[in-house]
Amino acid sequence: MNTGRTVKTALLLGAIVIVSACATASGPAEIDTSEGAELSFDGLYPVKNTSRFTKVWAREGFDLSGYTKILLQGGGIEYRPVKNVSRTAISRSSASEFPVSEKTKAQVRDIFAKAFTDELANVRGFEVVTEPGPDVLIVRGYLLDVVSKVPPEPIGRSEIYLSSVGEATLVIELVDPDSEAALLRAIQRGVAGRNRSGSLDMTTAIWSNPVTNMAEVRRLASSWATRVRSGLEELADTYKIGTER
After folding, report:
1. Could you give the CA distance from residue 236 to residue 239 in angstroms, rounded to a whole number?
2. Are 216 and 206 in contact, with CB atoms under 8 Å apart?
3. Residue ranges making up the domain that contains 142
4. Is 229 within the bounds of a domain?
5. In Å, what is the CA distance from 56 to each residue of 38, 53, 72, 137, 139?
6. Count of domains observed in the chain
7. In whole angstroms, what is the distance from residue 187 CA to residue 245 CA?
8. Residue 244 lies in a domain
9. Which tens digits make up the pLDDT trace of 13-64?
10. Domain presence at residue 243
11. For a Cys staple, 238 with which of 20, 168, 169, 231, CB 3.0–4.6 Å?
12. 3-class DSSP assignment, residue 116
């Protein structure tokens, strides 16, 4: 797998969902093409009975049997604009969201690059390529509304405990290479941290420092990368992709 620009622009693909592999207790997942279905802005139908993502949409007649390869593309990373809080004012501030430094952004990019490169290097069924083609499915990922919960360390205080180090909304699209149209889109809000409830429970709170914060980012990256690989392999099994190679 090429570990250059193509991989680095697809750092945060996250937990890919597929129509045939996201059933819940309510029954198998299915595309709702009924008259009252609420379509996405680009004509995708909602998928019912999905459990891995908050929202999933798919194109009517969703079928990936014509694809044998995948091309990873990054749609970009967007951070929520927040006001800066100085180290001296942090103890008096009620802020819960903080700016992300360029150094931290670079660290996050590197962590996710390594996680996805390592996990997808030998994905079963699909061949990972670096150029588009007629049988190449584009897997495009976006990370939107990224929020840091990590404040600047205040003067005179050595320990900070957090319920999470950050949050983001993951958007995954499976895109047809000829039309550039999305065949499937899934979104999910994710949390980097052990305490997913959002409350500061000291039994699960994170001692915030550069090492532990990046450890939580690595944990999230690894989890998402594993789910991406699992989803792609389920797709390959469902549509019998790669069985003759």
Report:
1. 5
2. yes
3. 5-238
4. yes
5. 12, 7, 20, 18, 15
6. 1
7. 32
8. no
9. 333 334 334 444 455 668 888 888 899 999 999 988 776 677 889 998 888 8
10. no
11. 20
12. helix
